[in-house]
Amino acid sequence: MLSRLFSEVLPDVQRLAGDWVEDNESEECKAKEDDHEPCHLEDDDLDDAQEGSSRAESEMAGDDDEDDEAEEEECGDENSGDKPKKRGPKKRKMTAARVERSKMRRLKANARERTRMHDLNSALDNLRKVVPCYSKTQKLSKIETLRLAKNYILALGEILRNGKRPDVVTYVQMLCKGLSQPTTNLVAGCLQLNTRNFLTEQCTDGARFHMPSSPFSVHPYPYRCSRLSSPHYQPGSGALNLRGHSYSSGYEGVYPPGATSPDYSSPDYEGQPSPPVCLNGGLSGKQQESSETDRNYHYSMHYSGLTTSRPSHSLPFGPSGARSGGAHSENIPPFHDVHLHHDRAPPYEDLNAFFHN
DNA sequence: TAGGCCATCTGGTCCT
DNA sequence: AGGACCAGATGGCCTA
């Protein structure tokens, strides 16, 4: 909470800090003018910064008391011995003023670097929002976000090349290639949730869902995982293991819910959180740990402006967050705000149309 | 406590 | 000359 607040406020703070640095610099300039010293950085300052930063650092510690009279003093002491004189520009001692300027440069550079990293992170956040699984509370790590994004691109490219939709399992496998087990479980869990949501919606509500944007094909047979069909299968305990081809629950061979796709062609689309499917509800780990019969997950589904609640929705996935990891970590986030994006894949028809244009 | 992830600082390099 | 970019170091936080 604090960190989020901090991150939101930080840019402003940084701007303020930047102003502060600027102000300090100008104040410093005033001080230097008072001392008859030019406030602009001199060549030797740059030299100090570029060739002797470490030296500056070391001298920063102790030379602060040095007065400016010594500034023009050459470093003759180090050459006073038998050692041959060093070539190159003569190094000047770090005066207090130069140390201050060096500090200021460093502060400004730090602020720039922070801003740069924040920009990078916000771009990464935008990327998180457009890859198939998105959660505000359980963010994918940076590296996993990049891997998933790469897989997503490759999967979509594969769809384009083959001209046909992959089945869900294949799609999940493509997406999860190279991902860590927790992330694999998270993504697969998201996809399966999506699938199951659709089932529930359709069966209990008769809701009319279209899946124009789903890249999935109907699986020729209801997929049953080995674990599910195994007598040893314990509901709720099954970790998805896509790499081992052990899936904890059935991909029922249906389309996941499609949704009103955002206008990706819109220039102002910047990876807004996907509106189509939003899972809310008590899916936190602690709740799920309560009991087997308590695994009646309530969630609401936002779909084209429609919000419904569905009780008694059983999940074969265990609880835990993206960071929980572990052999049985199903890495299912609390689902307070999980957004599923795979339905954002371009409609097959659209892809074809695009292909033939 | 170890390991993963992250933010930040820092110095070096390259570019304009 | 200054900024962007990069990579290493460091310390904090969180979870198993």
List the helices and strands and how they pair.
Elements: H1 2-34, H2 43-51, H3 53-62, H4 96-130, E1 133-135, H5 142-162, H6 168-176, H7 181-205, H8 226-229, E2 278-279, H9 285-288, E3 297-303, E4 306-313, E5 338-340, H10 348-356
Antiparallel strand pairs: 1-5, 2-5, 3-4
Helix pairs in contact: 1-4, 2-3, 4-5, 5-6, 6-7
The protein binds a DNA duplex (16 and 16 nucleotides) through helix 2, helix 3 and helix 4.
Report a brief summary of the structure.
It is built from ten helices and five strands, in the order H-H-H-H-E-H-H-H-H-E-H-E-E-E-H.
Note down, in words, how this protein is organized:
The chain is mainly alpha-helical and 357 residues long. It has a domain at 97-198. Helix content is 45%, strand content 6%. The chain is built from 10 helices and 5 strands; from the N terminus they run ααααβααααβαβββα. It has helices at 2-34, 43-51, 53-62, 96-130, 142-162, 168-176, 181-205, 226-229, 285-288, 348-356, and strands at 133-135, 278-279, 297-303, 306-313, 338-340. The strands form 2 sheets. A 3-stranded antiparallel sheet has the order 1-5-2, sandwiched between helices. A two-stranded antiparallel ribbon has the order 3-4. Strand 3 (297-303) and strand 4 (306-313) form a beta hairpin. The longest helix has 35 residues, at 96-130. The two termini are 49 Å apart. The model is unreliable at 1-84, 197-337 and 342-357 (pLDDT under 50). It binds a DNA duplex (16 and 16 nucleotides) through residues 3, 7, 40-41, 43, 46, 49-50, 53-54, 57, 105-106, 108-110, 112-114, 116-118, 121, 141-143, 321, 323-326, 329. Efficient DNA binding requires dimerization with another bHLH protein. GO terms for molecular function: DNA-binding transcription factor activity, RNA polymerase II-specific; E-box binding; protein dimerization activity. Residues 104-156 form the BHLH domain.
